[in-house]
Specification:
It is built from 11 helices and 8 strands. By secondary structure, it is of the alpha/beta class. It has a single domain, classed as Alpha/Beta hydrolase fold, catalytic domain (Rossmann fold). It binds D-malate. D-malate binds next to loops. The site of D-malate (MLT) has 8 residues, from loops.
């Protein structure tokens, strides 16, 4: 079922009475990146996914976004749906939003799942790359920005063996409004570093990382997981940055096992 909440497109699957899991997607993707997880988990959980403002079916408007405004959006969805301490699951940019949401609202969620993401903010090289991306989009080369960016997100094996699915993700990403995409780049470049808060996270946390992830590599994610009290770290062998799409069985198994072990 689709709902519009505060202009955002929100998608619900599962029983209203079940424990809710909120899925926050990465950049420049949309809620459909969680399709395999929702299909598996909606038997036991109320799966809530949504398109982050500016991407997918959610409006870009003026593209003036920050991670803070994305956290406000997340909070509004939890409030409007009256979700009681949902599980929060974010990938990459969705992880930046989730880490900041947990820092701002430590009592709002019962559990955290971080896929292919990091707590550190952009360094100077990263900031310059974002600036170059905005310049490229402004010069009318939106698709030329999307194509290599998305390619870099996937592991080589997936692109070779699942090319049709990979192309579908690229083509969907190209359908985004360039204003929304630039807004997300500005939000990510201006995000705070959430590393200091990691040791204060006091809810069960699962950290999932693709062994071939070039954007949030295993050593970076392992060091983040080590700072979160009692976090579980799962490495998905052979996968790039897009673990939920590249290896759904491994990701679904890790999430299901983690949730059952923690009695959710
Ligand atoms: C993402 O997957 O959300 C992005 O690659 C994150 C980023 O560019 O930092």
């Amino acid at each position: 079922m689709k709902k519009i909440i505060n202009d955002l497109s929100v998608f619900l699957s599962g029983e209203n009475e079940s424990k809710a899991i909120m899925f926050v997607h990465g950049f420049p993707f949309d809620h459909l990146m969680w399709t395999a997880q929702v299909k598996e988990l909606d038997k036991e959980y109320l799966c809530v996914s949504y398109d982050v403002r500016g991407l997918g079916e959610s409006p870009a408007v003026n593209g003036q976004f920050t991670i803070e405004s994305f956290v406000d959006d997340l909070e509004t969805i939890v409030y409007e749906l009256k979700l009681d301490k949902p599980i929060l699951c974010g990938l990459s940019m969705g992880g930046y939003i989730s880490l900041r949401a947990i820092e701002r609202m430590p009592d709002k969620f019962c559990s955290l799942i971080l896929c292919d993401t990091k707590s550190v903010a952009d360094d100077n090289e990263g900031r310059l790359k974002r600036a170059a991306a905005i310049k490229q989009i402004n010069s009318g080369e939106f698709e030329a920005f999307i194509e290599p960016f998305v390619l870099n997100c996937f592991g080589e094996k997936f692109v070779k063996e699942n090319n049709a699915e990979y192309r579908r993700v690229v083509d969907r990403s190209k359908k985004n409004n360039p204003i929304g995409v630039k807004g997300c780049l500005l939000a990510m470049v201006s995000r705070t570093d959430t590393t200091e808060n990691l040791s204060k996270i006091n809810i069960p946390t699962l950290v999932i990382c693709g062994s071939e992830d070039k954007l949030s590599p295993p050593d970076v994610m392992k060091s983040m997981a080590d700072k979160i009290p009692n976090a579980n770290f799962v490495l998905v062998e052979g996968s790039g940055h897009m673990t939920p799409i590249e290896n759904p069985p491994a990701v679904n198994k890790a999430i299901s096992y983690f949730l059952i072990k923690n009695n959710f």
